[in-house]
TrEMBL record:
Pathway terms, separated by semicolons: Pyrimidine metabolism; UMP biosynthesis via de novo pathway; UMP from orotate: step 2/2
NCBIfam families: pyrF_sub2
GO biological process, one term: 'de novo' UMP biosynthetic process
SUPFAM superfamilies named in the record: Ribulose-phoshate binding barrel
Active site feature: 96
Official protein name in the record: Orotidine 5'-phosphate decarboxylase
Organism expressing this protein natively: Jiangella asiatica
Molecular-function GO terms, alphabetical: orotidine-5'-phosphate decarboxylase activity
Catalytic activity annotation: orotidine 5'-phosphate + H(+) = UMP + CO2
Protein origin, superkingdom: Bacteria
Pfam families, per the entry: OMPdecase
Polar residues bias locations: 210-229
Enzyme class label: lyase
E.C. code: 4.1.1.23
Length: 307
Protein backbone atom coordinates (compact mmCIF):
# COMPACT_ATOMS: atom_id res chain seq x y z
CA UNK A 1 0.00 0.00 0.00
CA UNK A 2 1.39 3.40 -0.98
CA UNK A 3 1.26 6.02 1.73
CA UNK A 4 -0.38 9.40 1.24
CA UNK A 5 3.07 11.01 1.31
CA UNK A 6 4.27 8.74 -1.49
CA UNK A 7 1.15 9.36 -3.60
CA UNK A 8 1.35 13.11 -3.06
CA UNK A 9 5.04 13.21 -3.94
CA UNK A 10 4.35 11.34 -7.18
CA UNK A 11 1.36 13.53 -8.05
CA UNK A 12 3.32 16.74 -7.47
CA UNK A 13 6.15 15.48 -9.69
CA UNK A 14 3.71 14.51 -12.43
CA UNK A 15 1.18 17.32 -12.26
CA UNK A 16 3.04 20.25 -10.68
CA UNK A 17 2.86 21.84 -7.28
CA UNK A 18 -0.64 23.12 -6.68
CA UNK A 19 -3.70 22.43 -4.57
CA UNK A 20 -6.86 24.02 -5.96
CA UNK A 21 -9.58 24.69 -3.43
CA UNK A 22 -13.23 23.99 -4.23
CA UNK A 23 -14.91 26.74 -2.20
CA UNK A 24 -18.42 27.37 -3.54
CA UNK A 25 -18.96 30.76 -1.87
CA UNK A 26 -22.49 32.16 -2.40
CA UNK A 27 -20.91 35.07 -4.30
CA UNK A 28 -19.08 32.70 -6.63
CA UNK A 29 -22.25 30.70 -7.31
CA UNK A 30 -23.94 33.97 -8.28
CA UNK A 31 -20.98 35.06 -10.44
CA UNK A 32 -21.21 31.72 -12.27
CA UNK A 33 -24.94 32.28 -12.88
CA UNK A 34 -25.94 29.53 -10.42
CA UNK A 35 -28.52 29.48 -7.65
CA UNK A 36 -27.36 29.28 -4.05
CA UNK A 37 -28.84 25.82 -3.54
CA UNK A 38 -27.80 22.18 -3.81
CA UNK A 39 -28.35 22.13 -7.58
CA UNK A 40 -26.12 25.19 -8.08
CA UNK A 41 -23.58 23.71 -5.69
CA UNK A 42 -23.45 20.45 -7.62
CA UNK A 43 -23.05 22.23 -10.96
CA UNK A 44 -20.24 24.38 -9.56
CA UNK A 45 -18.34 21.50 -7.99
CA UNK A 46 -18.79 19.24 -11.01
CA UNK A 47 -17.46 21.97 -13.31
CA UNK A 48 -14.31 22.34 -11.20
CA UNK A 49 -13.71 18.60 -10.96
CA UNK A 50 -14.32 18.09 -14.69
CA UNK A 51 -11.99 20.98 -15.57
CA UNK A 52 -9.14 20.22 -13.16
CA UNK A 53 -9.44 16.64 -11.91
CA UNK A 54 -7.22 15.23 -14.64
CA UNK A 55 -4.46 17.83 -14.39
CA UNK A 56 -4.13 19.12 -10.83
CA UNK A 57 -2.31 17.14 -8.13
CA UNK A 58 -4.52 17.98 -5.17
CA UNK A 59 -8.11 19.23 -4.98
CA UNK A 60 -9.35 20.63 -1.68
CA UNK A 61 -13.12 20.84 -1.21
CA UNK A 62 -13.94 23.17 1.69
CA UNK A 63 -16.53 21.21 3.68
CA UNK A 64 -18.23 24.30 5.15
CA UNK A 65 -19.52 25.41 1.74
CA UNK A 66 -21.13 22.00 1.23
CA UNK A 67 -22.46 21.64 4.79
CA UNK A 68 -24.32 24.94 4.54
CA UNK A 69 -26.64 23.20 2.04
CA UNK A 70 -27.52 20.48 4.57
CA UNK A 71 -27.70 16.79 3.77
CA UNK A 72 -27.98 17.46 0.01
CA UNK A 73 -24.78 19.48 0.20
CA UNK A 74 -22.99 16.68 2.03
CA UNK A 75 -24.21 14.25 -0.65
CA UNK A 76 -22.65 16.54 -3.28
CA UNK A 77 -19.41 16.51 -1.27
CA UNK A 78 -19.39 12.70 -1.32
CA UNK A 79 -19.72 12.79 -5.11
CA UNK A 80 -16.97 15.40 -5.44
CA UNK A 81 -14.56 13.23 -3.43
CA UNK A 82 -15.33 10.14 -5.53
CA UNK A 83 -15.25 11.93 -8.90
CA UNK A 84 -12.04 13.83 -8.19
CA UNK A 85 -10.28 10.64 -7.18
CA UNK A 86 -11.64 8.80 -10.21
CA UNK A 87 -10.14 11.57 -12.37
CA UNK A 88 -6.73 10.92 -10.80
CA UNK A 89 -6.50 13.84 -8.38
CA UNK A 90 -5.77 13.41 -4.70
CA UNK A 91 -8.42 14.89 -2.43
CA UNK A 92 -7.74 16.92 0.70
CA UNK A 93 -10.97 17.46 2.57
CA UNK A 94 -10.73 20.78 4.43
CA UNK A 95 -12.76 20.17 7.62
CA UNK A 96 -10.30 21.36 10.30
CA UNK A 97 -11.48 18.85 12.89
CA UNK A 98 -10.15 18.77 16.44
CA UNK A 99 -11.81 17.33 19.58
CA UNK A 100 -11.21 15.07 22.58
CA UNK A 101 -9.69 11.74 21.65
CA UNK A 102 -12.85 9.60 21.90
CA UNK A 103 -14.75 11.93 19.56
CA UNK A 104 -11.71 12.15 17.33
CA UNK A 105 -12.11 8.42 16.63
CA UNK A 106 -15.56 9.14 15.19
CA UNK A 107 -14.07 11.81 12.92
CA UNK A 108 -11.40 9.29 11.96
CA UNK A 109 -14.13 6.80 11.00
CA UNK A 110 -15.83 9.49 8.90
CA UNK A 111 -12.84 10.94 7.06
CA UNK A 112 -9.99 8.43 7.09
CA UNK A 113 -11.62 4.99 6.89
CA UNK A 114 -12.20 3.90 3.27
CA UNK A 115 -15.58 2.38 4.20
CA UNK A 116 -16.96 5.91 4.69
CA UNK A 117 -18.28 7.89 1.69
CA UNK A 118 -16.55 10.97 3.13
CA UNK A 119 -13.13 9.32 3.26
CA UNK A 120 -10.54 11.45 1.47
CA UNK A 121 -6.82 11.06 0.81
CA UNK A 122 -6.20 13.58 3.59
CA UNK A 123 -8.06 15.95 5.91
CA UNK A 124 -7.16 19.14 7.73
CA UNK A 125 -7.09 18.98 11.54
CA UNK A 126 -6.73 21.50 14.35
CA UNK A 127 -4.23 20.53 17.08
CA UNK A 128 -5.36 23.19 19.53
CA UNK A 129 -6.90 20.65 21.93
CA UNK A 130 -3.37 19.30 22.16
CA UNK A 131 -1.49 17.40 19.46
CA UNK A 132 -2.03 14.10 21.31
CA UNK A 133 -5.81 14.43 20.96
CA UNK A 134 -5.36 13.87 17.22
CA UNK A 135 -3.97 10.35 17.77
CA UNK A 136 -7.10 8.39 16.69
CA UNK A 137 -7.22 10.23 13.38
CA UNK A 138 -3.46 10.02 12.88
CA UNK A 139 -3.51 6.27 13.54
CA UNK A 140 -6.56 5.57 11.37
CA UNK A 141 -5.28 7.68 8.48
CA UNK A 142 -1.83 6.08 8.49
CA UNK A 143 -3.28 2.57 8.82
CA UNK A 144 -5.24 3.14 5.59
CA UNK A 145 -2.51 4.96 3.65
CA UNK A 146 -4.17 8.34 4.14
CA UNK A 147 -2.82 11.61 5.50
CA UNK A 148 -3.49 14.76 7.48
CA UNK A 149 -2.59 18.43 7.38
CA UNK A 150 -2.18 19.90 10.86
CA UNK A 151 -2.80 23.63 11.36
CA UNK A 152 0.45 25.24 12.51
CA UNK A 153 0.70 28.87 11.33
CA UNK A 154 -2.62 29.70 9.75
CA UNK A 155 -3.08 32.40 7.12
CA UNK A 156 -5.57 34.54 9.06
CA UNK A 157 -4.50 37.65 11.00
CA UNK A 158 -5.94 36.29 14.29
CA UNK A 159 -3.65 33.22 14.32
CA UNK A 160 -0.50 34.66 15.94
CA UNK A 161 -2.27 35.34 19.27
CA UNK A 162 -2.47 31.58 19.85
CA UNK A 163 0.14 30.10 17.54
CA UNK A 164 3.00 32.43 18.48
CA UNK A 165 2.36 32.29 22.22
CA UNK A 166 5.49 30.98 23.94
CA UNK A 167 5.76 28.27 26.56
CA UNK A 168 8.14 28.25 29.53
CA UNK A 169 10.82 26.82 27.28
CA UNK A 170 10.53 29.92 25.09
CA UNK A 171 9.21 27.94 22.15
CA UNK A 172 6.10 28.98 20.24
CA UNK A 173 2.97 26.84 20.23
CA UNK A 174 3.33 26.48 16.46
CA UNK A 175 6.95 25.34 16.91
CA UNK A 176 5.82 22.63 19.31
CA UNK A 177 3.18 21.44 16.81
CA UNK A 178 5.83 21.31 14.08
CA UNK A 179 8.06 19.21 16.39
CA UNK A 180 5.27 16.66 16.90
CA UNK A 181 4.71 16.39 13.15
CA UNK A 182 8.45 16.05 12.48
CA UNK A 183 8.64 13.17 14.98
CA UNK A 184 5.60 11.45 13.44
CA UNK A 185 7.09 11.66 9.93
CA UNK A 186 10.53 10.38 10.96
CA UNK A 187 11.93 7.92 8.43
CA UNK A 188 9.14 8.40 5.87
CA UNK A 189 10.46 8.63 2.33
CA UNK A 190 10.26 10.55 0.06
CA UNK A 191 7.61 12.53 1.94
CA UNK A 192 5.77 11.93 5.19
CA UNK A 193 1.98 11.59 5.27
CA UNK A 194 1.47 14.25 7.92
CA UNK A 195 1.64 17.73 6.51
CA UNK A 196 1.22 21.10 8.15
CA UNK A 197 -0.60 24.29 7.18
CA UNK A 198 1.56 27.40 7.07
CA UNK A 199 -0.06 30.43 5.47
CA UNK A 200 1.66 32.21 2.60
CA UNK A 201 0.47 35.39 4.32
CA UNK A 202 2.31 34.97 7.61
CA UNK A 203 4.93 37.62 6.97
CA UNK A 204 2.01 40.04 7.04
CA UNK A 205 0.27 38.58 10.09
CA UNK A 206 3.05 37.95 12.67
CA UNK A 207 2.54 40.08 15.77
CA UNK A 208 5.17 42.77 16.44
CA UNK A 209 5.99 41.18 19.83
CA UNK A 210 6.50 37.77 18.31
CA UNK A 211 8.52 38.82 15.30
CA UNK A 212 10.54 41.50 17.04
CA UNK A 213 9.79 43.79 14.13
CA UNK A 214 7.12 46.28 13.20
CA UNK A 215 4.75 43.47 12.33
CA UNK A 216 6.34 42.32 9.10
CA UNK A 217 8.82 39.53 9.14
CA UNK A 218 12.06 40.63 7.57
CA UNK A 219 13.23 37.08 7.05
CA UNK A 220 14.32 36.33 3.53
CA UNK A 221 15.74 33.10 2.16
CA UNK A 222 18.92 34.97 1.30
CA UNK A 223 19.19 36.20 4.87
CA UNK A 224 18.20 33.00 6.63
CA UNK A 225 19.32 30.41 4.11
CA UNK A 226 17.38 27.90 6.16
CA UNK A 227 14.02 26.19 6.43
CA UNK A 228 12.96 28.31 9.39
CA UNK A 229 10.69 31.25 10.13
CA UNK A 230 11.73 34.57 11.63
CA UNK A 231 9.79 33.57 14.76
CA UNK A 232 12.01 30.50 15.23
CA UNK A 233 9.90 27.60 13.97
CA UNK A 234 11.69 24.91 11.97
CA UNK A 235 9.71 24.10 8.83
CA UNK A 236 11.61 20.92 8.00
CA UNK A 237 8.93 18.49 9.22
CA UNK A 238 9.48 15.71 6.68
CA UNK A 239 6.00 16.23 5.22
CA UNK A 240 4.23 18.63 2.88
CA UNK A 241 3.68 22.28 3.77
CA UNK A 242 0.25 23.42 2.61
CA UNK A 243 0.33 27.16 1.98
CA UNK A 244 -3.05 28.90 1.64
CA UNK A 245 -3.39 32.66 1.36
CA UNK A 246 -2.36 33.43 -2.21
CA UNK A 247 -4.74 35.68 -4.12
CA UNK A 248 -7.88 36.68 -2.21
CA UNK A 249 -6.04 36.84 1.14
CA UNK A 250 -3.32 39.06 -0.25
CA UNK A 251 -0.21 36.90 -0.60
CA UNK A 252 1.54 36.27 -3.90
CA UNK A 253 3.45 33.32 -5.31
CA UNK A 254 6.64 35.34 -4.78
CA UNK A 255 5.85 35.51 -1.04
CA UNK A 256 6.39 31.72 -0.87
CA UNK A 257 10.12 32.34 -1.30
CA UNK A 258 10.22 34.87 1.51
CA UNK A 259 8.17 32.76 3.90
CA UNK A 260 9.56 29.30 3.20
CA UNK A 261 13.16 29.80 2.00
CA UNK A 262 14.94 26.45 1.79
CA UNK A 263 11.69 24.62 2.61
CA UNK A 264 10.19 25.75 -0.72
CA UNK A 265 10.44 22.25 -2.34
CA UNK A 266 8.04 20.88 0.29
CA UNK A 267 5.46 23.63 -0.27
CA UNK A 268 2.10 22.97 -1.89
CA UNK A 269 0.33 26.30 -2.46
CA UNK A 270 -3.45 26.14 -1.95
CA UNK A 271 -5.46 28.58 -4.05
CA UNK A 272 -9.25 28.80 -4.17
CA UNK A 273 -10.97 32.09 -5.05
CA UNK A 274 -8.23 33.46 -7.29
CA UNK A 275 -8.68 30.50 -9.63
CA UNK A 276 -12.42 29.96 -9.14
CA UNK A 277 -13.25 33.57 -10.10
CA UNK A 278 -11.99 32.79 -13.62
CA UNK A 279 -14.83 30.23 -14.08
CA UNK A 280 -17.18 28.81 -15.10
CA UNK A 281 -15.53 28.38 -18.51
CA UNK A 282 -13.41 25.17 -18.07
CA UNK A 283 -10.63 26.39 -20.36
CA UNK A 284 -10.21 29.55 -18.29
CA UNK A 285 -10.13 27.55 -15.05
CA UNK A 286 -7.48 25.27 -16.54
CA UNK A 287 -5.43 28.24 -17.77
CA UNK A 288 -5.54 29.99 -14.38
CA UNK A 289 -4.45 26.83 -12.59
CA UNK A 290 -1.70 26.10 -15.13
CA UNK A 291 -0.35 29.65 -14.81
CA UNK A 292 -0.08 29.21 -11.04
CA UNK A 293 1.66 25.83 -11.44
CA UNK A 294 4.13 27.48 -13.85
CA UNK A 295 4.74 30.44 -11.53
CA UNK A 296 5.54 28.10 -8.63
CA UNK A 297 7.84 26.02 -10.85
CA UNK A 298 9.66 29.18 -12.01
CA UNK A 299 10.14 30.24 -8.40
CA UNK A 300 11.73 26.90 -7.54
CA UNK A 301 14.06 27.11 -10.53
CA UNK A 302 14.99 30.68 -9.59
CA UNK A 303 15.73 29.68 -5.99
CA UNK A 304 17.60 26.44 -6.53
CA UNK A 305 19.22 26.65 -9.97
CA UNK A 306 20.45 30.22 -9.75
CA UNK A 307 22.02 29.64 -6.35
O1 LIG B 1 -4.66 28.78 7.44
C1 LIG B 1 -5.56 28.48 6.65
C2 LIG B 1 -6.08 27.20 6.57
C3 LIG B 1 -7.02 26.93 5.63
N1 LIG B 1 -7.46 27.88 4.77
C4 LIG B 1 -8.48 27.49 3.77
O2 LIG B 1 -7.93 27.63 2.46
C5 LIG B 1 -8.88 28.21 1.58
C6 LIG B 1 -8.35 29.54 1.09
O3 LIG B 1 -9.22 30.11 0.16
P1 LIG B 1 -8.81 31.38 -0.76
O4 LIG B 1 -10.03 31.66 -1.52
O5 LIG B 1 -7.66 30.93 -1.64
O6 LIG B 1 -8.43 32.48 0.16
C7 LIG B 1 -10.18 28.32 2.36
O7 LIG B 1 -10.92 27.14 2.14
C8 LIG B 1 -9.74 28.36 3.80
O8 LIG B 1 -10.70 27.82 4.69
C9 LIG B 1 -6.93 29.13 4.83
O9 LIG B 1 -7.28 30.04 4.06
N2 LIG B 1 -5.99 29.40 5.77
Amino acid sequence: MDTFGQRLHAALERRGRLCVGIDPHPGLLAAWGLDDDAVGLERFARTVVDALGESIALLKPQSAFFERHGSRGVAVLETVIADARAAGALVLLDVKRGDIGSTMQAYADAYADPSSPLCADAVTVSPYLGYGSLAPLVDTALAHGNGLFVLARTSNPEGPEVQLARGEDGRTVAGTILDHVRAANAGAEPLGSIGVVVGATIRYTASPEASGSAGLSTASPEASGSAGLSTGEDLAVGGPLLAPGIGAQGATVADLLTVFGDALPQVVPAVSREILTTGPEPARLRRAAAETVDAVHDLLVQRFQNG
